[in-house]
Amino acid sequence: MYIPSSFTEEDPKILFKLIEEYNFGILFSQHYEQPEATHLPFLVDRQRGEHGVLIAHFAKANKHWKKLIESKKVLSVFQGPHSYISPSWYEDRAEVPTWNYATVHAYGIPRIIHDSSELRDMVTRLTHHHEDEIKSDWSIDEVSKQDFETDLKAIVGIEIEITRLEGKFKFNQNKTEADQAKVIKNLDKRNRNEVSDIMKKNLSRK
């Protein structure tokens, strides 16, 4: 990924936080000359391995998982907040339009999982993660054991030991504080608060 120095984010805590908040990522791999991509909800285990581990599962009917070679790296991409930025929001309007965004690229080695107990743990953890997020009173225990076991037979798990993380947080850091403040004001008017909140934090660090 092309990352100018102004937009580089290397703090693992910030990168993991984005993955956790925007965990519906895209898994890319290359099979001979054919690229493959699958959209998956991921969990991240920050403590395992040198750089953490990503956890997800495929529908068994999805043939992509069969093409993954456990010795070859894959790429998982996580897209965070983003927004169009108009030149009309700058002090000097003689600029070109741009796009503000945050993204994390995680490279790693995949391991395919068929073991039912590991799959059960994966699905349970992922479900709790999202149910807790929305403060739901639903529990996966409400699914009958028989139905749960049947569903587990229809999926395949994957763990990706992360070997490298790249983060690009492009939020007008190359502009003046006055320009950044004007962009924030206009983003707030348009309820693009996720983008403006990141920009406010960047300014507060100065």
What does this structure look like?
This protein is of the alpha+beta class and 206 residues long. The chain is 30% helix and 34% strand. It contains 5 helices and 7 strands; from the N terminus they run αββββββααβαα. Strands 2-1-5-6-7-4-3 form a 7-stranded antiparallel β-sheet. α4 (177-189) packs antiparallel against α5 (193-204). The longest helix has 18 residues, at 116-133. It is elongated. The model has no long low-confidence stretch (mean pLDDT 93).
| Terminal-residue CA separation | 26 Å
Number of strands: 7
Over all CA atoms, what is the radius of gyration? 20 Å
Question: Judging from the principal axes of the Cα atoms, what is the shape?
Answer: elongated
Order of SSEs, N→C? Answer: HEEEEEEHHEHH
Low-confidence stretches: none
Mean pLDDT: 93
Q: How can the largest sheet be summarized?
A: 7 strands, antiparallel
Question: Which helices and strands, and how do they pair?
Answer:
Elements: H1 12-21, E1 24-31, E2 34-41, E3 43-45, E4 53-59, E5 74-85, E6 98-113, H2 116-133, H3 145-152, E7 155-170, H4 177-189, H5 193-204
Give descriptors for this structure.
206 residues; alpha+beta
Summarize the structure.
With 206 residues, the protein is an alpha+beta fold.
